[in-house]
């Protein structure tokens, strides 16, 4: 720590009121120095009064500027702490939302997996009878095509297109 840092630390310990008084005393001293020239036996002190008053005024104004900077810094620190608290609350809310979404995705994935297992483990002919009852004609034709692919693929043993589609739905999180 240099000597200047030590001096500056000591100056910062002086109460703010002293610097307000120094500013006012500097202004009053300059006015008195102007008026002292009219008094014959005090005219000799005009220059020292002006110099001391000017130094007091400069020191007071300088330190009042420093006080303003300190106050602005305190306000910024307060605003920063408030913003940190708000960010913490928002982060907790986002974490809760992410957890809820993770649970929803997990449920959808499990549902899709059960549906795929049902399709694969069930006899293709019973699927056709139970699923196609409530479908529109276009959907029924599409499902019948998929079932035909499934029956063909069961014989050849590659992965059926319906299983691939359902796995893609599970990966995307699409509902049935």
Strands, helices and their partners?
Blueprint: H1 3-12, H2 16-36, H3 46-121, H4 124-131, H5 137-156, H6 161-172
**SSE arrangement, N to C:** HHHHHH
Structural class assignment: mainly alpha
The number of helical segments is 6
Q: Beta fraction of the residues? A: under 5%
Separation of termini?
72 Å
The shape, in one word, is rod-shaped
Radius of gyration, in Å, reads 43 Å
Spans of at least 5 consecutive residues whose pLDDT stays below 50 are: none
- Percent helix, as a range, is over 70%
- Give the total of beta strands: 0
Written account of the structure:
This protein has 176 residues and is mainly α. The chain has a domain at 1-92. The chain is built from six helices and no strands. It is rod-shaped. The two termini are 72 Å apart.
Keywords, please?
176 residues, 6 helices, mainly alpha, rod-shaped
Summarize the structure.
This protein is mostly helical and 176 residues long. It has 6 helices and no strands.
